[in-house]
Amino acid sequence: MRGWASRLSELGRVVCFDYPYMVDGRRRPDPQPKLVDAHRRALAEARSSHDGPLILAGKSMGGRIGCHVTLEEPVDALICLGYPLRGAGKTANVRDQVLLELGTPVLFVQGTRDALCPLELLASVRERMTANSRLYVVDDGDHSLAPTRTFLRTAGETQADVDRRILEQIRSFLDQYAT
Q1: What is the C-alpha separation between 54 and 179, in angstroms, rounded?
Q2: Residue 155 to residue 80: CA distance in whole angstroms
Q3: Which pTM value belongs to this model?
Q4: At how many degrees (to 10) do helices 32-48 and 61-70 cross?
Q5: Burial class of 162 by CB neighbour count within 10 A (0 to 12, 13 to 18, 19+)
Q6: CA-based Rg of the chain, rounded to a whole angstrom?
Q7: Exposed e or buried b for every residue in 123-142, given b needs 16+ CB within 10 A?
Q8: Buried-state track 94-110, b at ≥16 Cβ within 10 A, e below 16
C-alpha cells in the first residue's frame, strides 16, 4: 500500500496508518471491530486537518474494512484495490453483505487472476448493490494487481505502465464522485 500511497499523492493528500496488529508486529489481523475502530480513528484524525472531499482507499483487507467504516462515517468515495470478496480456501464465505449495505460510491480495481475476488462473483454482487460502483479490470493481474512477467513482456509493458492506467481510472472515478 505504501507504493499506492505515493502514486495516489499525485491526486491529493494521502494519510496512511497501520492497524494495531501491524504496529505490534503480529501477522494475524485483529478482530473486525478493532480494525474498524482503528480505521475510524485514522479517518477522524484526517478529517480534523482536511476540509475537502474524503476518500478511503485500501488494499485487500484495508478496502474491506474501509467499506465497513463508511457504514458509520460519511466519506465521499471508496477505492478498493484487490477487494477480498471471499476468504482463502474452497469453502470460504462470500463477504458481500457490507457491499450490499453501502451507500458510498466505490471503485473496485481487480485482477483477472485474483482468486479472492472472481470477477463473475463480483459482477453478481455489483448487480445487487445500491451504491454506485465501477470496476476496473487489470488483465492477468493477481490479488496485488500484478500481471505475470510473461504477460508484461508479451504486451511490451511494465508494472509501472499498469499502475499508471490504474491511477488514471482512479482519477476519472474521483472526478465524477469526489469533486
Answers
A1: 10
A2: 25
A3: 0.94
A4: 70
A5: buried
A6: 16
A7: eebbeeeebebbbbebebbb
A8: ebbebbeebebbbbbbb
Looking up cell 480456501 gives: 89
Tens-of-pLDDT digits for all 179 residues of the chain? 778 889 999 998 898 999 999 999 999 999 999 999 999 999 999 999 888 899 999 999 999 999 999 999 999 999 999 999 998 776 678 999 999 999 999 999 999 999 999 999 999 999 999 999 999 999 999 999 999 999 999 999 999 999 999 999 999 999 998 87
Cα–Cα distance measured from residue 97 to residue 66, given in angstroms and rounded to the nearest whole number: 14
Rounded to the nearest 5°, which phi and psi values hold at 137? Answer: -100, 130
Q: Which CATH number fits domain 2-177: 3.40.50.1820, 3.40.50.2300, 2.30.40.10, 3.40.50.720?
A: 3.40.50.1820
Give me the residue label for grid cell 491526486: 11
